Each structure stands twice: as C-alpha cells, then as structure tokens.
Amino acid sequence: MVSDNSKIIKYHWSSFCLLLTLGLTLLFVFIIYKMIHSNPIPGCAISSVIIGLMVYTILQCPLYIINSRKQISIKLIGKTININKDDILFIRKIDKVELNSAYRAGGSGGYFGYTGKFKSLEIGTFYMYATEFYNLQLIVTKDKKYMISCSFDKFENE
C-alpha cells in the first residue's frame, strides 16, 4: 500500500542490461527447444534446471522503489525488501569506479538486472538491486548494505 506522501521511483534500464536480458532469454529458449527435440530425456532434465534458474532470476528483477516517510521499499517481481529509515546510517552516491574491485558472490550480472550479493574491497559485502550503473546509491543500515540505481534527489528532504 502506497501512502499519499510516498514517492514511487521506477527503475531505468540501461541499454546493455536490456539487450543482455533479451538476448540471453532468446538464447535460453532456443537451447531448451533444441535440447528437448534432440534428446528428450536428458534435454528435459537440463531444460528444467535452466528454466528454474531463469525463474529465480526473473523473481529477483527490480521493478520500483517506494520512498515513504518511515521506510524505503525495493519492489522486486518476487518480493519486497523493506528498509526502515530508523535503521539507515547514511545514503551516499556511488561512482561506477568504486565498483572496480567488486565481484558477484551470488546473483545476476545484468540478466534481469544486477541483483544479489556482491563483495568489494572498498565497500564490503552489499546487496545490489540495480538495472544500470548510473545513479547508484549505497544505503548503509545497522546490519546490511544495499546498492540501488536511483537518482539521489529522490531521497532528499525525507
């Protein structure tokens, strides 16, 4: 439920992320089709694994952010992550260069967004929910760090 004073911030998809998502989806559908028609029994087993991974990745896809007076909610297709504003220590803009040492510890590197658990020497462990590398914001709470792609002015004056 969105209150009247909440801001809904839609994710903007980078061209790379969009093309990667479309390209890989078409490739996976083609591979699944070929596997099932060439070797039905092993093809169905391998296809089931591919489909399961695709569904999991799709469920992690970020849709929009709700910035309300009391919390920031990151809405994914499969769930909502709520961050209470009382728990937030700070929010700061991240430059793409700060992610040079970052690596994915689990998640997606562009297929339906940059999502999951990442690690970096400069930032430490963080959970990323982004669809572009511009306007990245690091939200540091008492116990976790979240990185989202959203313009900083959407959080000002809150």
Question: TL;DR?
Answer:
This protein is α+β, with helices and mostly antiparallel strands and 158 residues long. It is built from two helices and ten strands, in the order E-H-H-E-E-E-E-E-E-E-E-E. It is elongated and about 55 Å long.
What are the key terms here?
alpha+beta; 158 residues; elongated; Bacterial_PH-related; transmembrane helix; 2 helices; 39% strand; four-stranded antiparallel beta sheet; six-stranded mixed beta sheet; PH domain-containing protein
Question: Could you please describe the fold and organization of this structure?
Answer:
This protein has 158 residues and is α+β, with helices and mostly antiparallel strands. The chain has one domain (1-152). The protein has helices at residues 15-38, 40-59; strands spanning 7-10, 62-67, 71-76, 80-84, 88-94, 103-110, 113-120, 124-130, 136-141, 145-149. The longest helix has 24 residues, at 15-38. The relative contact order is 0.18. The mean pLDDT is 90.
Radius of gyration: 18 Å
Q: What structural category characterises the helix and strand content?
A: alpha+beta
Strand content: 35-45%
Q: How many structural domains can be distinguished in the coordinates? A: 1
The H/E string reads: EHHEEEEEEEEE
The strand line-up of the biggest sheet is: 5-9-10-8-7-6
* DSSP summary, beta strand count: 10
Distance between the termini: 19 Å
Shape: elongated
Mean pLDDT, all residues = 90
Kindly state the percentage of residues in helix.
Answer: 25-40%
Low-confidence stretches: none
Task: Let me know the largest β-sheet.
Answer: 6 strands, mixed
- Given the structure, what is the number of helices? 2
